[in-house]
């Protein structure tokens, strides 16, 4: 699913109006109808509904929703906030339609500094500002938004299209934005919904289709996309009946150190579960027996130190892919060994955890990472690698810039893990849940990505598919065991069920 900017959404509306064709008023009626149906599904007609409307088309939606709710016998009231001199044509048309049918449902709040006190059981609908926001909200309207923020604690708030005051494509940090429990957004995700800094602002996001013209959606390029199951199914390659273990690649996993052999085990087990043909683990000598017992299908070679500081003494050229990082530590010798590794091995590899920390602290080392490699930092590792950023929009720019410039596939872990590619595209993953915020979860991802590269998936496809499958396995684990009780081992256990889903 593509993510469009506010400007592109306006173009999509205009294209739909011209080519469907449909009048803009009818398109607004559709949008309001979709919101009304959603509200009626979850709230009983006895619920008093107060709808705060702005002067633009977002307010127009609010006025139309008021009328449509009244048609269904809801006790709905529209309160119009006069923040602009002039209302849009569709706002005016919906105002007149409401006045004509339900004159007592319309209330004007001109130049108000606060909204009147509300009964306790009121459902609040925020239809003040949508994609037409052109600057941060100030003055008395900012005061109203702050008042609505306070009401979040006592009342359910639903924002129409996006929480009022939120910029659709850029950061809204330190600006007044309504805090919603639900956001009913038209047709597609807005980029800002995917920023971690907005997590507490949108509440649950529900995308309501309003029939924007498919030609515009198909033809219009955008770097931002949501990675969906249909995309992953198109990437997935079923196994050939003539396959043998050599078909699916021999991977080398460089992982573990004294006290951190669990990371190596988790990566190795997930690599095997994700379909690698053959797996060799390179571990320090203290880990030899541990790996041989815990992961019988894997072969094992050892470093004669307790970390990896004597180097990776093996002919690395024979491996289809190398995954490096989980639990390796950051000893100076390990950094030295990594540098030698990049000289000897020029195929895409997977770098995670301590491998990323070594990249962050060794000047120039990141420029030696083979093109097409997969880097999987969490926000702290990302900051160590690429520096602090002022907000999530800037962070996304830094992410994409580095992916393009260094020809790497770099992700940034989060609720919607962002994945940036050398071609300039950025995808957001939607699978996964907070139960995956548990030790070892990242090691499991490293194993999956390594396995997918070994099987011949391109770097981009391996990242899209691996992150999606990792999240899906986590979702299955949480469904059965709860987010609290699930562990990284459970993510591995549910990989099988996740692959079966791709077969359908
Ligand atoms: N045909 C369409 O274009 C459709 C539009 N829809 C709705 O229309 C919305 C976009 O409508 P508009 O483009 O009219 O924009 P908005 O309704 O979001 O806001 C525009 C109004 O707000 C004012 N404004 C902007 N920034 C402000 C600020 N910081 N402080 C105070 N006032 C400010 C503008 O001067 C203008 O009066 C969407 O979010 C969606 O809700 C839907 O009805 C679907 C169809
Ligand atoms: K809104």
UniProtKB/TrEMBL annotation:
Alphabetical list of CDD domains matching this protein: YXKO-related
Residue positions binding K(+): 58, 126, 164
Domain annotation YjeF C-terminal: ranges: 228-502
Keyword Nucleotide-binding among record annotations: yes
Record keywords, A-Z: ATP-binding, Isomerase, Lyase, Metal-binding, Multifunctional enzyme, NAD, NADP, Nucleotide-binding, Potassium
Reported cofactor(s): Mg(2+); K(+)
Protein's UniProt keywords contain Lyase: yes
Single annotated GO MF: ADP-dependent NAD(P)H-hydrate dehydratase activity
Annotated signal sequence range: none
Protein's GO biological process: metabolite repair; nicotinamide nucleotide metabolic process
Cofactor: record remark: Binds 1 potassium ion per subunit.
Catalysed reactions, semicolon-separated: (6S)-NADPHX + ADP = AMP + phosphate + NADPH + H(+); (6R)-NADPHX = (6S)-NADPHX; (6S)-NADHX + ADP = AMP + phosphate + NADH + H(+); (6R)-NADHX = (6S)-NADHX
Binding-site positions, (6S)-NADPHX: 57-61, 130-136, 161, 263, 327, 378, 443
Domain YjeF N-terminal as annotated: residue spans: 9-218
Enzyme Commission number(s) from the entry: 4.2.1.136, 5.1.99.6
Family from the record: In the N-terminal section; belongs to the NnrE/AIBP family.
Subunit and partners: Homotetramer.
Protein's UniProt name: Bifunctional NAD(P)H-hydrate repair enzyme
Source taxonomy: Bacteria, Pseudomonadati, Bacteroidota, Chitinophagia, Chitinophagales
């Amino acid at each position: 699913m593509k993510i469009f900017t506010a400007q592109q959404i306006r173009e999509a509306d205009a294209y739909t109006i011209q080519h469907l064709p449909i009048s803009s008023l009818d398109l607004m009626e559709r949008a309001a109808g979709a919101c009304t149906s959603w509200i009626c599904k979850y709230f009983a007609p006895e619920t008093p509904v107060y709808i705060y409307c702005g002067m633009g088309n977002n307010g127009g939606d609010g006025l139309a929703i008021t009328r449509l709710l009244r048609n269904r016998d809801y006790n709905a009231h529209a309160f119009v906030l006069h923040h602009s001199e002039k209302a849009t044509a569709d706002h005016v048309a919906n105002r007149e339609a409401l006045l004509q049918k339900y004159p007592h449902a319309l209330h004007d709040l001109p130049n108000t500094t606060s909204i009147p006190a509300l009964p306790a059981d009121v459902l609040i609908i925020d239809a003040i500002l949508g994609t037409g926001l052109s600057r941060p909200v100030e003055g008395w309207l900012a005061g109203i938004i702050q008042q609505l923020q306070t009401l979040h604690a006592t009342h359910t708030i639903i924002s129409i299209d996006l929480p009022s005051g939120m910029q659709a494509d850029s950061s809204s940090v330190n600006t007044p934005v309504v805090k919603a429990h639900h956001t009913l957004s038209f047709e597609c995700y807005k980029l800002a919904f995917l920023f971690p800094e907005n997590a507490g602002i949108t509440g649950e996001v529900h995308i309501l289709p309003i029939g924007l013209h498919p030609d515009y959606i198909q033809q219009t390029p955008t770097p931002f996309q949501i990675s969906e199951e249909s995309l992953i199914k198109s990437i997935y390659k079923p196994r050939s009946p003539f396959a043998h273990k050599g078909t699916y690649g021999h991977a080398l996993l460089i992982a573990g150190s004294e006290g951190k052999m669990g990371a190596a085990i988790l990566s190795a087990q997930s690599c095997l579960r994700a379909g690698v043909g053959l797996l060799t683990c390179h571990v320090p000598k203290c880990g030899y027996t541990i790996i041989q017992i815990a992961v019988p299908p894997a072969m094992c070679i050892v470093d004669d130190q307790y970390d990896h500081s004597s180097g990776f003494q093996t002919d690395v050229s024979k491996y289809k892919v190398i995954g490096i990082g989980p639990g390796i530590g950051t000893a100076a010798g390990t950094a030295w060994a990594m540098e030698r590794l990049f000289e000897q091995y020029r195929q895409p590899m997977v770098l995670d955890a301590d491998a990323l920390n070594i990249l962050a602290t060794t000047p120039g080392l990141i420029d030696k990472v083979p093109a097409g490699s997969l880097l999987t930092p969490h926000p702290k590792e990302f900051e160590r690698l690429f520096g602090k950023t002022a907000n999530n929009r800037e962070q996304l720019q830094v992410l994409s810039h580095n992916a393009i410039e260094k020809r790497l596939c770099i992700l940034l872990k989060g609720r919607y893990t962002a994945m940036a590619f050398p071609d300039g595209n950025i995808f957001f993953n939607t699978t996964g849940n907070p139960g995956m915020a548990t030790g070892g979860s990242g090691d499991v991802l490293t194993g999956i990505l390594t396995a997918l590269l070994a099987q011949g998936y391109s770097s981009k496809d391996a990242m899209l598919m691996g992150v999606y499958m990792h999240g899906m396995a986590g979702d299955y684990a949480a469904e059965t065991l709860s987010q609290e009780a699930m562990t990284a081992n459970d993510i591995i256990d549910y990989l099988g069920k996740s692959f079966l889903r791709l077969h359908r």
